[in-house]
């Protein structure tokens, strides 16, 4: 996209929406995966993204999109989109369509989150500020709470969630959002160097991060990379790479439960070598990751990185840490 | 002040500024208390407040203002002003005046904070949003970091501080900001019920919160109350009461060090009986209050109150907790 100054900018920073559904009658036949493909296509049209490929197992359908990813389990919907997509314009449509197509008539929790954009002025006006996004969501949901973690005038991470007990089953999400990437580590995510997604997954070392996962990877022309990985039980990892040096950005996200995330963090940093990153860990009381949040509080340096900010939040049923590091 | 709807609104919510000064030559004769009264009067004119009375001891000068309080020790300046005062318009003047009048040529840390206003549209345009306040401060300071604790779309607390090691001596600040006050507890803060400040201090039970302090108290006509209390060593407490039922608000602030604040919290709540309150505890590594922050994490109910939000932040040299409670 052309910026005001005329130079190309790609906004790698994703908008991330997770919605948990339920039916008031506890109808066990309700299942988001019964919704037909054309319905998802119509939803994604509103968002300005489209499906590129799909993998599935007994627990989850995982889609690579033209702009990031979508994951669908029985009760949980996750949509992550980057660039200038218009994710929040589709929330109302999503809720209505899910009610009509599969009978879930209740949203039990939502999580909308994103890092601050590098160039907010290039976004659709509804996404240009978090205040506007919050207004839109407040019009749709009772009990919505909006938070900013980190520094509002530097790097920060926004979250909108429902102030409710919400999800009772063990649930956790780990995110590592990285920027100012080492150009050398980014070279492999271009057609000039790698043949295809599979080749980039291997050359980069992504294949070693969580061994044994089922992978769907795409290398874009001339550069850029997306991958989804799934594991039995409804677990996923997803990685998206914007390799261009002037707007480099990589996101890593997973709901794989870990009693400690330190090993995973070191693996991901080893593959991507960012100049800066922020990390969020979300876990509810039932999750084994719950204890890992306290461990993270103690870590104020990581090989070659020093911590700028650390915050810990207690919600009704969830705990969250936000941490931001830079190369020392 | 008349609101758009024509009804009277008084904004009890204070703007709070704390600035720590130093001299690059380590000149031990520099002392903020050497600055003449007329210079402080001129500063307060910019803020739209004035001095009502003053007490002092060997370590501190404490002023009750027409709108809240001002505390001056050798190296530390604290200004807290409510209503529609224009505190941030005076920061540049303060820094220049201090340099000229007493030789401190360096700001080593600043803390600007406030709760969200009940009626932001009644404020001077520079104070109508935290974004605007941050822009103003960013123009003056390098390394300023802006944070929002709590819910941006409900009740929250804003903080701007320098990302520096700053103050090395033990330092802590405890604040309890209360609203939706019990009307019965507020009756005593009016001329109809109490004779003067001293009488209101006694009848309300404020005199028992920290026994033995030197108190300067004022009861306003027809209602409203301000008090400063000082203790040897540069310690203060300050309480401000806006008793009108439709905009009731009380603030309690102190830098008295405590290994645990639980007893103090219960005393303050006992006197004022708020419907809702938020609490912040700020402490640096050298402070004995440092450990109290972890204790507060465990407290999710307090007699009659339940917790809505709890956040813990680690800065370079300071730790902060933010907690918000409502009557169950």
UniProtKB/TrEMBL annotation, chains A, B:
Q: At which residues is there a site annotated Cleavage (non-hydrolytic)?
A: 67-68
**BP-aspect Gene Ontology terms:** spermidine biosynthetic process; spermine biosynthetic process
> Can the keyword Lyase be found in this entry's annotation?
yes
Report the InterPro entries cross-referenced here.
AdoMetDC-like, S-AdoMet_decarboxylase_euk, S-AdoMet_deCO2ase_core, S-AdoMet_deCO2ase_CS
The residues responsible for catalysis, as annotated, are 68, 82, 226, 240
Q: Name a GO CC annotation attached to this entry.
A: cytosol
Q: Which UniProt keywords apply?
A: Autocatalytic cleavage, Decarboxylase, Lyase, Polyamine biosynthesis, Pyruvate, S-adenosyl-L-methionine, Schiff base, Spermidine biosynthesis, Zymogen
One Pfam family here: SAM_decarbox
Keyword presence, S-adenosyl-L-methionine: yes
Per the similarity annotation, which family is this? Answer: Belongs to the eukaryotic AdoMetDC family.
Give the matching PANTHER family: S-ADENOSYLMETHIONINE DECARBOXYLASE, S-ADENOSYLMETHIONINE DECARBOXYLASE PROENZYME
Can you name this protein? adenosylmethionine decarboxylase
Q: What is the lineage of its organism?
A: Eukaryota, Metazoa, Spiralia, Lophotrochozoa, Mollusca
């Amino acid at each position: 996209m052309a910026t005001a100054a005329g130079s190309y900018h790609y906004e790698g920073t994703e908008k991330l929406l997770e919605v948990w559904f339920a039916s008031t009658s506890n109808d066990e036949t309700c299942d988001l995966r019964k919704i037909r493909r054309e319905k998802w296509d119509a939803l994604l049209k509103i968002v300005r993204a489209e499906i590129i490929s799909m993998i599935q197992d007994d627990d989850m359908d995982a889609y690579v999109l033209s702009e990031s990813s979508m994951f669908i389990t029985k009760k949980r919907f996750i949509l992550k989109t980057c660039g200038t997509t218009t994710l929040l314009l589709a929330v109302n449509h999503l809720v209505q369509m899910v009610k009509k197509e599969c009978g879930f008539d209740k949203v039990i929790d939502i999580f909308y989150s994103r890092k601050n954009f590098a160039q907010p002025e290039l976004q659709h006006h509804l996404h240009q500020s978090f205040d506007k996004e919050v207004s839109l969501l407040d019009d749709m949901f009772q009990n919505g709470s909006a938070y900013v973690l980190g520094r509002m005038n530097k790097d920060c991470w926004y979250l909108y969630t429902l102030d409710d007990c919400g999800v009772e089953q063990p649930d956790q999400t780990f995110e590592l959002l990285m920027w100012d990437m080492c150009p050398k580590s980014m070279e492999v995510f271009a057609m000039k160097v790698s043949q295809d997604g599979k080749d980039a997954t291997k050359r980069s070392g992504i294949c070693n991060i969580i061994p044994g996962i089922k992978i769907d990877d795409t290398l874009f022309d001339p550069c850029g990379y997306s991958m989804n990985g799934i594991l039995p039980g409804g677990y996923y990892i997803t990685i998206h790479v914007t390799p261009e040096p002037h707007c480099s950005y990589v996101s890593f996200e997973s709901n794989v439960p870990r009693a400690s995330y330190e090993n995973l963090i070191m693996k991901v940093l080893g593959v991507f070598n960012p100049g800066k990153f922020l990390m969020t860990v979300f876990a509810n009381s039932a999750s084994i990751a719950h204890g890992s949040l306290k461990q993270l509080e103690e870590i104020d340096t990581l090989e070659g990185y020093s911590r700028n900010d650390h915050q810990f939040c207690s919600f009704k049923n969830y705990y969250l840490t936000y941490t931001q590091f830079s190369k020392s």
